[in-house]
Amino acid sequence: MTSAPAVALICGSRSDLPALQGCIEQLDAYQIGWEASVISAHRQPEALRAYVAEAEAAGTRIFIAAAGLAAHLPGVVASLTQLPVIGIPLDAGGLGGQDALLAIVQMPPGVPVATVAVGGARNAAHLAARILALGDAAVAERVAAFRREQAGRAELRIQPRVER
User: Under a CB-based contact definition with an 8 Å cutoff, are residues 120 and 88 in contact?
Assistant: First the structure.
């Protein structure tokens, strides 16, 4: 790997790829480069270790890892890098994603994983953009523009009724 996009998206199974679509769309809207990989923390631990090291060395600045059930992938990625890791808990079993959410947020001290809501792929992209905006004025402006647009969509003004 010679040059990496700013964000590396990882999921552990091909069946998880559709859950990343909102994240991909939002990163594209922010014009933030990304790549997506399917690498299982359980079935391919050495491949995951190599990928994280190569991506980090090539310039990746944030990892986003999506996982369901026991949801080890985000924590394993966080154990392999000092870069920010954002976990997306997926609804992959009978507990509605609560098992994945708890697995991701309950990381041991010193191995943090920022976590979004179950299925919160779009918010993972928004968080990544805000982190990148700290050192990139162009991304910061695109985040600000999104926020202005979002505020405009939410605003509603009702004219007071004047009684005669």
Answer: yes
Alpha-carbon separation of residue 99 from 70, 73, 105, 158 (angstroms): 6, 13, 10, 43
Share of the chain above pLDDT 90, in %: 86
| Arithmetic mean of pLDDT, 76-85 | 98
**Residues 24, 22: Cα–Cα separation, whole Å:** 5
Q: Tell me the three-class secondary structure of the chain, residue by residue.
A: CCCCCCEEEEECCHHHHHHHHHHHHHHHHCCCCEEEEECCCCCCHHHHHHHHHHHHHHCCCEEEEEEECCCCHHHHHHHHCCCCEEEEEECCCCCCCHHHHHHHHCCCCCCCCEECCCCCHHHHHHHHHHHHHCCCHHHHHHHHHHHHHHHHHHCCCCCCCCCC
| Nearest of 138, 140, 69 to residue 98 by alpha carbon | 69
Taking every pair of C-alpha atoms in the chain, what is the biggest distance, in angstroms?
Answer: 77
Domains of the chain: 7-154 (3.40.50.1970)
